[in-house]
Amino acid sequence: MSENQNPQPDASHEVTVAPEAGNAVVPADRFTDPGVPEHKPRLTDTDPRAAKRAERTVTLLFVLSILGTVGSIVAYVLVPPDGTTGGVRLSTLLIGLGLAVSLLGIGVAGIHWAKTLMGDREFVQERHTLATQGEARETAIRDMNEGLVDSGVVGRRGVLKGAFFGALALFPLAIAVPLIGSVGGDWNVSSFKHTMWKRGTRLAIDPSGRPIKASDVTVGSVFHVIPETTEEFRESHEWVTEKSKAVVLMVRLNPEDLRTDQSPEGETWSHEGIVAYSKICTHVGCPVALYEQQTHHLLCPCHQSTFDIADSAKVVFGPANRRLPQLPITVDDEGYLVAQDDFAEPIGPSFWERLK
Protein backbone atom coordinates (compact mmCIF):
# COMPACT_ATOMS: atom_id res chain seq x y z
CA MET A 1 0.00 0.00 0.00
CA SER A 2 1.41 3.35 -0.99
CA GLU A 3 1.96 6.20 1.45
CA ASN A 4 -0.77 8.27 -0.20
CA GLN A 5 -3.48 5.68 0.49
CA ASN A 6 -5.62 6.02 3.63
CA PRO A 7 -5.77 3.01 5.91
CA GLN A 8 -9.17 1.32 6.32
CA PRO A 9 -10.92 2.17 9.59
CA ASP A 10 -10.78 -0.43 12.31
CA ALA A 11 -14.07 -2.17 13.20
CA SER A 12 -13.71 -0.89 16.76
CA HIS A 13 -13.93 2.71 15.50
CA GLU A 14 -17.26 2.76 13.68
CA VAL A 15 -18.33 6.11 12.34
CA THR A 16 -21.70 7.52 11.43
CA VAL A 17 -22.65 10.54 9.37
CA ALA A 18 -24.70 13.22 11.14
CA PRO A 19 -27.14 14.63 8.50
CA GLU A 20 -27.20 18.06 10.09
CA ALA A 21 -23.41 18.20 10.03
CA GLY A 22 -22.93 17.77 6.28
CA ASN A 23 -19.98 15.52 5.55
CA ALA A 24 -18.64 15.49 9.12
CA VAL A 25 -18.17 12.13 10.80
CA VAL A 26 -18.58 11.48 14.51
CA PRO A 27 -18.10 8.42 16.68
CA ALA A 28 -21.20 6.22 16.73
CA ASP A 29 -21.07 5.70 20.51
CA ARG A 30 -21.53 9.45 21.14
CA PHE A 31 -25.31 9.07 20.77
CA THR A 32 -25.90 6.12 23.02
CA ASP A 33 -29.36 5.85 24.59
CA PRO A 34 -29.16 7.19 28.17
CA GLY A 35 -32.18 5.17 29.18
CA VAL A 36 -34.76 6.05 31.82
CA PRO A 37 -33.25 7.72 34.90
CA GLU A 38 -33.54 5.94 38.21
CA HIS A 39 -36.81 6.70 39.97
CA LYS A 40 -36.46 8.76 43.12
CA PRO A 41 -39.32 8.01 45.49
CA ARG A 42 -41.20 10.91 47.02
CA LEU A 43 -42.15 11.18 50.66
CA THR A 44 -45.72 10.21 49.80
CA ASP A 45 -44.43 7.06 48.09
CA THR A 46 -42.65 5.82 51.22
CA ASP A 47 -44.66 7.30 54.09
CA PRO A 48 -48.39 6.37 54.24
CA ARG A 49 -49.02 9.21 56.68
CA ALA A 50 -47.58 11.77 54.23
CA ALA A 51 -49.75 10.31 51.48
CA LYS A 52 -52.80 10.61 53.72
CA ARG A 53 -51.96 14.25 54.50
CA ALA A 54 -51.60 15.01 50.79
CA GLU A 55 -54.92 13.32 50.11
CA ARG A 56 -56.63 15.43 52.77
CA THR A 57 -55.07 18.59 51.38
CA VAL A 58 -56.25 17.87 47.86
CA THR A 59 -59.73 16.99 49.13
CA LEU A 60 -59.96 20.24 51.11
CA LEU A 61 -58.92 22.24 48.05
CA PHE A 62 -61.68 20.65 45.99
CA VAL A 63 -64.16 21.34 48.81
CA LEU A 64 -62.95 24.96 48.85
CA SER A 65 -63.67 25.11 45.12
CA ILE A 66 -67.19 23.82 45.75
CA LEU A 67 -67.74 26.47 48.41
CA GLY A 68 -66.50 29.16 46.02
CA THR A 69 -68.99 28.02 43.36
CA VAL A 70 -71.85 28.01 45.87
CA GLY A 71 -70.76 31.40 47.18
CA SER A 72 -70.78 33.00 43.72
CA ILE A 73 -74.31 31.68 43.08
CA VAL A 74 -75.51 32.94 46.47
CA ALA A 75 -73.96 36.35 45.80
CA TYR A 76 -75.68 36.53 42.42
CA VAL A 77 -79.06 35.73 43.98
CA LEU A 78 -78.85 37.69 47.24
CA VAL A 79 -76.72 40.69 46.23
CA PRO A 80 -78.01 41.79 42.80
CA PRO A 81 -76.86 45.15 41.38
CA ASP A 82 -79.21 47.82 42.73
CA GLY A 83 -78.36 50.43 40.11
CA THR A 84 -75.98 52.43 42.30
CA THR A 85 -72.24 52.45 41.73
CA GLY A 86 -71.59 50.94 45.16
CA GLY A 87 -74.19 48.21 44.63
CA VAL A 88 -72.78 47.21 41.24
CA ARG A 89 -69.25 47.11 42.66
CA LEU A 90 -70.28 44.97 45.65
CA SER A 91 -72.21 42.48 43.50
CA THR A 92 -69.38 42.20 40.98
CA LEU A 93 -66.79 41.83 43.74
CA LEU A 94 -68.62 39.01 45.53
CA ILE A 95 -69.39 37.07 42.35
CA GLY A 96 -65.81 37.51 41.15
CA LEU A 97 -64.34 36.35 44.46
CA GLY A 98 -66.53 33.25 44.37
CA LEU A 99 -65.42 32.39 40.83
CA ALA A 100 -61.77 33.04 41.72
CA VAL A 101 -61.89 30.72 44.74
CA SER A 102 -63.68 28.07 42.69
CA LEU A 103 -61.18 28.07 39.84
CA LEU A 104 -58.15 28.47 42.11
CA GLY A 105 -59.27 25.53 44.24
CA ILE A 106 -59.55 23.24 41.22
CA GLY A 107 -56.23 24.39 39.77
CA VAL A 108 -54.16 24.14 42.96
CA ALA A 109 -55.77 20.82 43.89
CA GLY A 110 -54.94 19.36 40.49
CA ILE A 111 -51.32 20.47 40.69
CA HIS A 112 -50.85 19.19 44.26
CA TRP A 113 -52.51 15.90 43.35
CA ALA A 114 -50.22 15.38 40.37
CA LYS A 115 -47.08 16.22 42.33
CA THR A 116 -47.78 14.16 45.45
CA LEU A 117 -50.21 11.32 44.68
CA MET A 118 -50.20 10.49 40.98
CA GLY A 119 -47.54 8.17 39.68
CA ASP A 120 -44.32 9.89 38.61
CA ARG A 121 -42.44 6.98 37.08
CA GLU A 122 -41.19 7.27 33.52
CA PHE A 123 -42.12 4.50 31.10
CA VAL A 124 -40.84 3.70 27.63
CA GLN A 125 -43.12 2.35 24.94
CA GLU A 126 -41.35 0.99 21.91
CA ARG A 127 -42.57 2.44 18.65
CA HIS A 128 -44.16 -0.22 16.51
CA THR A 129 -47.26 -0.75 14.46
CA LEU A 130 -50.20 -1.37 16.77
CA ALA A 131 -52.14 -4.39 15.65
CA THR A 132 -55.83 -4.91 16.24
CA GLN A 133 -55.51 -8.45 17.51
CA GLY A 134 -56.97 -9.37 20.83
CA GLU A 135 -53.61 -9.43 22.59
CA ALA A 136 -52.84 -5.82 21.62
CA ARG A 137 -56.25 -4.62 22.78
CA GLU A 138 -55.94 -6.44 26.07
CA THR A 139 -52.52 -4.88 26.62
CA ALA A 140 -53.82 -1.37 25.91
CA ILE A 141 -56.77 -1.82 28.27
CA ARG A 142 -54.50 -3.17 30.98
CA ASP A 143 -52.14 -0.20 30.62
CA MET A 144 -55.03 2.25 30.83
CA ASN A 145 -56.42 0.60 33.92
CA GLU A 146 -53.01 0.60 35.57
CA GLY A 147 -52.68 4.31 34.81
CA LEU A 148 -56.07 5.08 36.33
CA VAL A 149 -55.28 3.12 39.45
CA ASP A 150 -51.86 4.74 39.69
CA SER A 151 -53.44 8.21 39.46
CA GLY A 152 -55.56 7.52 42.52
CA VAL A 153 -58.87 8.23 40.78
CA VAL A 154 -60.36 4.76 40.80
CA GLY A 155 -60.63 2.36 43.70
CA ARG A 156 -58.93 4.03 46.63
CA ARG A 157 -59.35 7.55 48.00
CA GLY A 158 -63.13 7.64 47.66
CA VAL A 159 -63.50 10.97 49.49
CA LEU A 160 -60.97 12.64 47.23
CA LYS A 161 -62.71 11.20 44.18
CA GLY A 162 -66.05 12.57 45.35
CA ALA A 163 -64.60 16.02 46.00
CA PHE A 164 -62.90 15.99 42.59
CA PHE A 165 -66.01 15.16 40.61
CA GLY A 166 -68.15 17.42 42.81
CA ALA A 167 -65.93 20.44 42.17
CA LEU A 168 -65.85 19.84 38.42
CA ALA A 169 -69.60 19.23 38.25
CA LEU A 170 -70.59 22.29 40.28
CA PHE A 171 -68.25 24.89 38.79
CA PRO A 172 -70.22 25.32 35.51
CA LEU A 173 -73.21 26.37 37.63
CA ALA A 174 -71.34 29.53 38.65
CA ILE A 175 -71.45 30.58 34.98
CA ALA A 176 -74.75 28.99 33.96
CA VAL A 177 -76.89 30.51 36.73
CA PRO A 178 -76.10 34.18 35.87
CA LEU A 179 -76.59 33.40 32.17
CA ILE A 180 -79.95 31.77 32.78
CA GLY A 181 -80.94 34.60 35.10
CA SER A 182 -80.20 37.19 32.43
CA VAL A 183 -82.47 35.54 29.86
CA GLY A 184 -85.48 37.23 31.40
CA GLY A 185 -83.87 40.67 31.31
CA ASP A 186 -84.94 43.67 29.30
CA TRP A 187 -84.47 42.86 25.60
CA ASN A 188 -86.40 45.90 24.38
CA VAL A 189 -83.92 47.30 21.87
CA SER A 190 -86.18 50.28 21.20
CA SER A 191 -84.92 51.70 24.50
CA PHE A 192 -81.66 52.51 22.71
CA LYS A 193 -83.48 54.78 20.29
CA HIS A 194 -84.21 57.41 22.93
CA THR A 195 -82.21 58.95 25.79
CA MET A 196 -82.76 61.59 28.48
CA TRP A 197 -81.81 64.38 26.11
CA LYS A 198 -84.66 66.59 25.00
CA ARG A 199 -85.16 70.17 23.86
CA GLY A 200 -83.87 72.62 26.46
CA THR A 201 -81.94 70.10 28.60
CA ARG A 202 -78.74 71.77 29.80
CA LEU A 203 -75.39 70.16 29.27
CA ALA A 204 -73.69 69.43 32.63
CA ILE A 205 -70.22 68.30 33.65
CA ASP A 206 -69.86 64.61 34.50
CA PRO A 207 -69.99 63.69 37.38
CA SER A 208 -70.68 66.91 39.28
CA GLY A 209 -73.79 67.81 37.29
CA ARG A 210 -72.84 71.52 37.03
CA PRO A 211 -74.33 73.20 33.93
CA ILE A 212 -71.87 74.46 31.32
CA LYS A 213 -71.86 77.92 29.78
CA ALA A 214 -70.56 78.35 26.24
CA SER A 215 -68.13 80.97 27.54
CA ASP A 216 -66.51 78.31 29.76
CA VAL A 217 -65.50 76.20 26.76
CA THR A 218 -62.23 77.25 25.16
CA VAL A 219 -60.89 76.09 21.80
CA GLY A 220 -59.30 72.65 22.19
CA SER A 221 -60.96 71.88 25.52
CA VAL A 222 -62.81 68.60 26.11
CA PHE A 223 -65.77 68.05 28.43
CA HIS A 224 -67.40 64.82 29.58
CA VAL A 225 -71.07 65.71 29.59
CA ILE A 226 -74.30 64.38 31.10
CA PRO A 227 -77.84 65.81 31.07
CA GLU A 228 -78.61 68.22 33.90
CA THR A 229 -81.01 66.63 36.39
CA THR A 230 -81.88 66.72 40.06
CA GLU A 231 -79.67 65.38 42.82
CA GLU A 232 -82.43 62.98 43.86
CA PHE A 233 -82.64 61.45 40.40
CA ARG A 234 -78.84 60.99 40.25
CA GLU A 235 -79.13 58.82 43.37
CA SER A 236 -81.93 56.68 41.97
CA HIS A 237 -81.78 53.25 40.36
CA GLU A 238 -82.87 54.58 36.95
CA TRP A 239 -80.00 57.09 36.79
CA VAL A 240 -77.31 54.48 36.07
CA THR A 241 -79.22 53.10 33.09
CA GLU A 242 -80.21 56.49 31.71
CA LYS A 243 -76.76 57.99 32.16
CA SER A 244 -75.11 55.06 30.38
CA LYS A 245 -77.12 55.91 27.26
CA ALA A 246 -76.83 59.71 27.46
CA VAL A 247 -73.08 60.27 28.08
CA VAL A 248 -71.55 62.77 25.66
CA LEU A 249 -68.09 64.06 24.75
CA MET A 250 -68.04 67.76 23.90
CA VAL A 251 -65.15 69.57 22.18
CA ARG A 252 -64.66 73.11 20.93
CA LEU A 253 -62.90 73.52 17.58
CA ASN A 254 -62.12 76.56 15.52
CA PRO A 255 -65.28 77.06 13.45
CA GLU A 256 -63.22 77.08 10.25
CA ASP A 257 -61.95 73.56 11.08
CA LEU A 258 -65.47 72.14 10.92
CA ARG A 259 -66.03 70.57 7.52
CA THR A 260 -69.69 70.00 8.34
CA ASP A 261 -71.82 70.80 11.38
CA GLN A 262 -75.30 70.45 9.94
CA SER A 263 -78.00 67.84 10.02
CA PRO A 264 -79.16 66.14 6.80
CA GLU A 265 -81.99 68.68 6.81
CA GLY A 266 -79.51 71.56 6.87
CA GLU A 267 -79.98 72.54 10.53
CA THR A 268 -76.90 73.71 12.45
CA TRP A 269 -76.09 71.27 15.28
CA SER A 270 -73.09 73.08 16.75
CA HIS A 271 -72.51 76.42 18.44
CA GLU A 272 -69.47 78.51 17.49
CA GLY A 273 -67.35 75.41 16.93
CA ILE A 274 -68.66 73.48 19.96
CA VAL A 275 -69.76 69.98 18.97
CA ALA A 276 -71.11 67.13 21.09
CA TYR A 277 -71.17 63.42 20.22
CA SER A 278 -72.24 60.24 21.96
CA LYS A 279 -69.37 58.62 23.86
CA ILE A 280 -70.66 55.12 23.10
CA CYS A 281 -68.70 53.50 20.29
CA THR A 282 -70.83 52.21 17.42
CA HIS A 283 -68.74 49.03 17.29
CA VAL A 284 -69.39 47.23 20.61
CA GLY A 285 -70.25 50.09 22.94
CA CYS A 286 -66.93 50.97 24.59
CA PRO A 287 -66.45 54.57 25.81
CA VAL A 288 -64.86 56.73 23.12
CA ALA A 289 -62.89 59.25 25.14
CA LEU A 290 -59.40 59.69 23.65
CA TYR A 291 -59.19 62.99 21.75
CA GLU A 292 -56.34 63.93 19.42
CA GLN A 293 -56.37 67.72 19.30
CA GLN A 294 -54.20 68.11 16.20
CA THR A 295 -56.19 65.70 14.01
CA HIS A 296 -59.61 66.21 15.66
CA HIS A 297 -59.92 62.44 15.94
CA LEU A 298 -61.74 60.52 18.68
CA LEU A 299 -60.23 57.10 19.42
CA CYS A 300 -61.94 54.11 20.97
CA PRO A 301 -59.41 52.39 23.27
CA CYS A 302 -60.99 48.94 22.90
CA HIS A 303 -60.58 48.23 19.19
CA GLN A 304 -59.07 51.48 17.85
CA SER A 305 -62.10 52.71 15.91
CA THR A 306 -61.34 56.32 15.02
CA PHE A 307 -63.88 59.08 14.33
CA ASP A 308 -63.33 62.52 12.81
CA ILE A 309 -65.34 65.05 14.85
CA ALA A 310 -64.53 67.81 12.36
CA ASP A 311 -66.53 65.84 9.80
CA SER A 312 -69.68 64.65 11.63
CA ALA A 313 -67.68 61.99 13.55
CA LYS A 314 -67.38 59.81 10.48
CA VAL A 315 -65.34 56.60 10.78
CA VAL A 316 -61.80 57.02 9.47
CA PHE A 317 -60.32 53.79 10.84
CA GLY A 318 -61.28 50.62 12.66
CA PRO A 319 -64.12 48.11 12.82
CA ALA A 320 -66.97 50.54 13.57
CA ASN A 321 -69.29 50.78 10.56
CA ARG A 322 -71.17 53.99 11.32
CA ARG A 323 -70.43 57.41 12.75
CA LEU A 324 -71.04 58.55 16.31
CA PRO A 325 -74.51 60.06 16.80
CA GLN A 326 -74.32 63.83 17.23
CA LEU A 327 -76.20 65.72 19.92
CA PRO A 328 -77.58 68.94 18.41
CA ILE A 329 -76.81 71.84 20.77
CA THR A 330 -77.37 75.58 21.12
CA VAL A 331 -77.41 78.14 23.96
CA ASP A 332 -80.27 79.42 26.07
CA ASP A 333 -80.99 82.99 27.14
CA GLU A 334 -78.54 82.68 30.05
CA GLY A 335 -75.68 81.47 27.89
CA TYR A 336 -75.86 77.84 29.01
CA LEU A 337 -75.37 75.08 26.45
CA VAL A 338 -78.60 73.15 25.91
CA ALA A 339 -79.74 70.32 23.66
CA GLN A 340 -81.90 71.12 20.68
CA ASP A 341 -83.34 67.61 20.83
CA ASP A 342 -82.40 63.97 21.44
CA PHE A 343 -79.88 62.17 19.23
CA ALA A 344 -81.25 61.85 15.70
CA GLU A 345 -80.28 58.15 15.54
CA PRO A 346 -79.92 55.25 17.99
CA ILE A 347 -76.82 55.34 20.17
CA GLY A 348 -74.43 52.45 20.67
CA PRO A 349 -73.49 49.46 18.52
CA SER A 350 -75.61 48.02 15.76
CA PHE A 351 -78.23 45.44 16.70
CA TRP A 352 -80.65 43.16 14.87
CA GLU A 353 -83.13 45.98 14.25
CA ARG A 354 -80.38 48.37 13.22
CA LEU A 355 -77.79 46.93 10.83
CA LYS A 356 -76.24 50.25 9.80
UniProtKB/TrEMBL annotation:
Gene Ontology cellular-component terms listed: plasma membrane
Composition skew (Basic and acidic residues), residue ranges: 30-49
Biological function: Iron-sulfur subunit of the cytochrome bc1 complex, an essential component of the respiratory electron transport chain required for ATP synthesis. The bc1 complex catalyzes the oxidation of menaquinol and the reduction of cytochrome c in the respiratory chain. The bc1 complex operates through a Q-cycle mechanism that couples electron transfer to generation of the proton gradient that drives ATP synthesis.
Region annotated Disordered, chain positions: 1-49
Family: Belongs to the Rieske iron-sulfur protein family.
Subcellular location: Cell membrane
Molecular functions (GO terms): 2 iron, 2 sulfur cluster binding; metal ion binding; monooxygenase activity; oxidoreductase activity, acting on paired donors, with incorporation or reduction of molecular oxygen
UniProt keywords, alphabetically: 2Fe-2S, Cell membrane, Disulfide bond, Electron transport, Iron, Iron-sulfur, Membrane, Metal-binding, Oxidoreductase, Respiratory chain, Transmembrane, Transmembrane helix, Transport
InterPro entries linked: QcrA_N (IPR045603), Rieske_2Fe-2S (IPR017941), Rieske_2Fe-2S_sf (IPR036922), Rieske_Fe-S_prot (IPR014349), Rieske_Fe-S_prot_C (IPR005805)
Membrane topology: Multi-pass membrane protein
UniProt-recorded name of the protein: Cytochrome bc1 complex Rieske iron-sulfur subunit
Regions crossing the membrane: 58-79, 91-114, 163-184
Source species: Promicromonospora citrea
Domain Rieske: 245-338
UniProt cross-references to SUPFAM superfamilies, sorted A to Z: ISP domain (SSF50022)
Named cofactor requirement(s): [2Fe-2S] cluster
The keyword Nucleotidyltransferase is assigned to this record: no
